[in-house]
Amino acid sequence: LTERLQNAFSKLRRKGKVSESDVRDAMREIRLALLEADVNFKVVKDFVKEVREKAIGSEVLDSLTPAQQIVKIVNDELVKTMGAEAVPLNKAPHIPTVIMMAGLQGAGKTTTVGKLAKYLQENEHARPLLIAADVYRPAAIKQLQVVGESVGAPVFEMGTDTDPREIVRQGMAQAAANHNDYVLIDTAGRLQIDAKLMQELQDIKEIAHPNEILLTVDAMTGQAAVDVAQGFNEQLDITGVVLTKLDGDTRGGAALSIRSVTGKPIKFIGQGEKMDALDVFYPDRMANRILGMGDMLTLIDKAQKNFDEQQAAEVAEKIQANTFDFNDFIDQMDQVQSMGGIEDIMKMIPGMANNPQLKNMHVDPKDMDHMKAIVYSMTEKERTNPELLNPSRRRRIAAGSGRPVLEVNRMIKQFKQARDMMNKMSKGNMGGMEQMMGG
Ligand code: GDP
Ligand code: MG
């Protein structure tokens, strides 16, 4: 996918100027790329049409090449279509805020209830009550109890013999009596949307007056996700979407499809089975993931001022103070990559051309995305304090980023090498350092 897009764009870049047929070529590649990312074909059609119109009509900024201009338009449009900004959870004016789950069987509703409970506990010191309203499988109640226990949240259940409507009624009463500030209602799913399920969900909605109806969709279902989302939205008027299983190798095209078909915001993404594997949805990050062009976009961002001098000075300072961390590392890699790769830049530094350490610093553009995925799977603490990264954290990061542990280890090693080398350089050859950072 990425390769194809980049081929299209490198074709454009070589030419320097964009003609209408160039745009047509690029748009064909973008269309294929989106389809490969599992974006629904109808959504792709509309999207490409819009982008094409903008690309042909647009003036190319002085500071950008025509190719960069097109990438920027594609990316901006992708971000815009997905809602531009992260959308927070709706809140009730008086407690409790009621969040009702909906979705097909296996989409991740029960797991997400647990993750949300944990998220709310950690971010708002919330005391949520979980209601077990899936009575069709005995294991479903047990599963919610296990989940509730693992995050330390109480579960209201009445076994499998009570009607889910009654369970919700009594669960709400219990939440009121106990002054729970959140109620999370786990509901049943089916393998397909059916009338009985929808009626039950509509009734629960009547009873509980949820502030949020979160449709949970498995990102790996790709194209099919659109029909599911449309069906649920028409019958329940959902308020938001949780896209699960983005830790798999899906590129997340479902995010674009669902948002553009339902118009409802994606609020969270699930990136693993563990209770901490829930993240706020950011359209710009998802756009990067769908296009797979993080470094290209960075290049555009940096186009006008190739390197910001102040930033370079900051980094040099950090290195000297030995506080250069993973955030800086990724930042620098982005910048270095946008200037044509680290090898080329290092060669500009006096005395570095034949340095054997240069070989260890080789960074392939493809590896860049993997490295970023790894860093994004670290907590903020781990990013600023790499010494925390013990084997169990590394395993978690590997699972979170979908990369092998071996690669996580290698990346951490590379980071340390880079840091050490920069440290040496900053002591020995400040001129070279500044040159590298773009001073
Ligand atoms: P429900 O039927 O909608 O309640 O779905 P469950 O919560 O039972 O989840 C179905 C399966 O998907 C379980 O094995 C979960 O562990 C798994 N699952 C849920 N969310 C995620 C996720 O974000 N990533 C991964 N890898 N697995 C998930
Ligand atoms: Mg369930």
From TrEMBL:
Binding site for GTP: 103-110, 186-190, 244-247
Reaction(s) catalysed (UniProt annotation): GTP + H2O = GDP + phosphate + H(+)
One CC-aspect GO term: signal recognition particle
AAA+ ATPase domain: residues covered: 95-273
Subcellular location field: Cytoplasm
Entry annotated with the keyword GTP-binding: yes
UniProt comment concerning the protein's domains: Composed of three domains: the N-terminal N domain, which is responsible for interactions with the ribosome, the central G domain, which binds GTP, and the C-terminal M domain, which binds the RNA and the signal sequence of the RNC.
Quaternary organization: Part of the signal recognition particle protein translocation system, which is composed of SRP and FtsY.
Family: Belongs to the GTP-binding SRP family. SRP54 subfamily.
Function: Involved in targeting and insertion of nascent membrane proteins into the cytoplasmic membrane. Binds to the hydrophobic signal sequence of the ribosome-nascent chain (RNC) as it emerges from the ribosomes. The SRP-RNC complex is then targeted to the cytoplasmic membrane where it interacts with the SRP receptor FtsY.
Protein name: Signal recognition particle protein
Origin species: Lacticaseibacillus pantheris DSM 15945 = JCM 12539 = NBRC 106106
